[in-house]
Each structure stands twice: as structure tokens, then as C-alpha cells.
Design brief:
Elements (H helix, E strand, L loop, with lengths): L12 H52 L16 E2 L5 E9 L2 E8 L2 H5 L5 E5 L4 E2 L1 H5 L1
Antiparallel strand pairs: 1-2, 2-3, 3-4, 4-5
Length: about 140
């Protein structure tokens, strides 16, 4: 008579399914947090770019006694200026020789994942809109 005395090692199907469910739950919690974090990071680069362009506009005004809507005149390679991370483009509009508005517009995936701050503006008067995009 032959006796089988082998010990079987490994995972059962139930253990594998429980592991997959736990991983799925963790992923469903982590992914929205990650995308929110990535959107805020891209927005911070846009805000930095807007402030940089506002400083360049003020310097341009000191030199030429007027503002410009041409980003190349402010020392940028492109018009509109694409922020370093590639998620926003910044463009200027000039209402008069003494007034300007800088606008950062989300492009690519940023436009869909950060709809509340898809368009961010700052004016020559220092008005920043939308306010909630500047405060975070």
C-alpha cells in the first residue's frame, strides 16, 4: 500500500481573490489622490509662470512705456508660452498701453483633470482669478 504524505503549499483560490480585492480597494483610493496631487502640481507651475510673466511685463513697461502681448518680446521662445511641464500655455492680452491680462490655459490631460482651474488669470492691477486656484 502506498501512502501519500505530501504537504501541499501555495495559495488557495479564495486567498488569491481576497488579495486582489484588497489591492483593488487600495488602488481605488490611491488613484484619485494621485491625480489630484498631479493636477495641483501642474497648477503650481502655471501660477509660477504667470508671476514670472507678470514680472517680465512690468520690466517691459519700464523699458518701453507700454505692455506687450507678444511673449517673444518678453524673452520667451514661443507665443503663447508653454509652461515647462507642458500642461499650461500662457498668453497675454493688452487692453491699453497701461493694462494687461495674463492667462494660463490648461492643455492636454490637465484640461480634463483640473476643470476648476483650466483658465487662470492675473491682471496688471494684481487681480487674480479664480481666487480658489491661487490659494491652494
Amino acid at each position: 500500500m502506498v501512502q501519500y504524505n505530501r504537504k501541499i503549499s501555495g495559495f488557495t483560490l479564495i486567498e488569491a481573490m481576497i488579495t486582489l480585492v484588497v489591492i483593488g480597494i487600495l488602488a481605488s483610493i490611491a488613484y484619485p489622490s494621485y491625480t489630484s496631487f498631479a493636477a495641483r502640481g501642474a497648477r503650481a507651475d502655471a501660477l509660477s509662470g504667470l508671476m514670472n510673466m507678470a514680472n517680465r511685463q512690468e520690466q517691459f513697461y519700464l523699458d518701453h512705456k507700454k505692455f506687450t502681448k507678444n511673449m517673444k518680446q518678453l524673452g520667451m521662445d514661443t507665443d503663447p508660452y508653454i509652461v515647462d511641464n507642458g500642461f499650461y500655455e500662457i498668453d497675454a492680452s493688452v487692453g491699453s498701453a497701461t493694462k494687461y491680462t495674463l492667462q494660463a490655459t490648461a492643455i492636454g490631460t490637465q484640461a480634463t483633470r483640473d476643470t476648476d482651474c483650466a483658465v487662470i488669470q492675473i491682471t496688471s492691477d494684481g487681480v487674480k482669478t479664480p481666487a480658489e486656484c491661487w490659494s491652494n
